[in-house]
Target: NADPH-dependent FMN reductase-like domain-containing protein
Amino acid sequence: MKSLLVVHHTPSPVTRECLEAVLKGARDPDIDGVEVKSIPALGATVPDVLAADGFLFGTSANFGYMSGALKHFFDTVYYPCLDAVAGRPYGLWVHGNNDTAGAVKSVQKIVTGLALTQVAEILELTGSLDASARERCYELGATVAVTLAEDA
Model:
């Protein structure tokens, strides 16, 4: 059984809605062999990261950067996990009121340093979620989970 760790900071109703759609996709009943573990960014630990076979990261865009909670998570796990997670797959979603570019760039720098492998297009969302945005969140979760299932 493969483990997919979803680390997120979802303080607003819209970011919570993104998380729920991502989790629904990752837990699609047609995807076998993947256990999905969702942990808020301030609660995720080094052992959680080391035990995971793949990752989904979700954050709000705050003042042109990822959320402080997700940054704290990365600060906590970066060096203890540096060589141990190289090559593991990841996906990312970012929600902002009007801009996500800085938040995306900040996460990309860190996951590049960890040598994680991007397996899905980064999902950048602004404003409220419509049916299309929810579907894209679902597809992101399913894509990363399927990637893990195929490696099982």
User: Anything to note?
Assistant: The chain has a mean pLDDT of 96. The radius of gyration is 14 Å.
